[in-house]
Write a structure and sequence with these properties.
Strand order of the largest sheet: 2-1-3-4
CATH architecture of the largest domain: Up-down Bundle
Strand content: 5-15%
Number of strands: 4
CATH class of the largest domain: Mainly Alpha
CATH topology of the largest domain: Glutathione S-transferase Yfyf (Class Pi), Chain A, domain 2
Helix content: 40-55%
Number of domains: 2
Order of helices and strands: EHEHEEHHHHHHH
Radius of gyration: 17 Å
Length: 213
Amino acid sequence: MVLKLHSAWRASAPYRVRIGLNLKGLAYEVVPVDLVAGQQKSDAYHAVNAQDLVPSLVLENGRVLTQSLSILEWLEEAHPQPPLLPKDAFDRQVVRAMAYIVACDIHPVNNLRILKALAGLGVEEPARNAWAQRWISDGFTALEPMVARHGRGYAFGDAPSLADACLVPQVYNAARFAVDMTPFPAIAAVAAKAAQHPAIAAGHPNLQPDAIS
């Protein structure tokens, strides 16, 4: 039995985990979950993930991991090479801080269920897009000087890390919402560099089995 990743092609959280799995060189099967159709709320998927969210990573022994950052941390502990975190404790904290800005501050207020909730409250699409642009830009404003200071090709140093696994999907979302990246040259440069890494490129939404053109 190989690892099974319950994923949605364009969702940021499983995108992060795909990058992490690819960087670790682990084989896995993608099990698509159609978020737009509400498949995540089905009885079958609820039995896998009681939170009705993606991703879920089913291990060879049948155990289920949830929450993208927790899964990435498990990957680092269970498969330490190549590392997603630096050796130095301070450097690890910096990388985690970068990742958390994306995963804890930017993404939660812009994911599909939040945008659908705004639509349900009568917020029109232009205003929903402006909402997403605001929070992405606010987060990138905090992240930009960190990447500029610590990056040497990637978000931290000269190799992909936990920070890149979170940043690359968020830059993809920024493009979806037409965020002006001019104020964020360091972030943009990292995303362009990362796009050339085979493991990161393989996680791109357009290459997933459930991708919609």
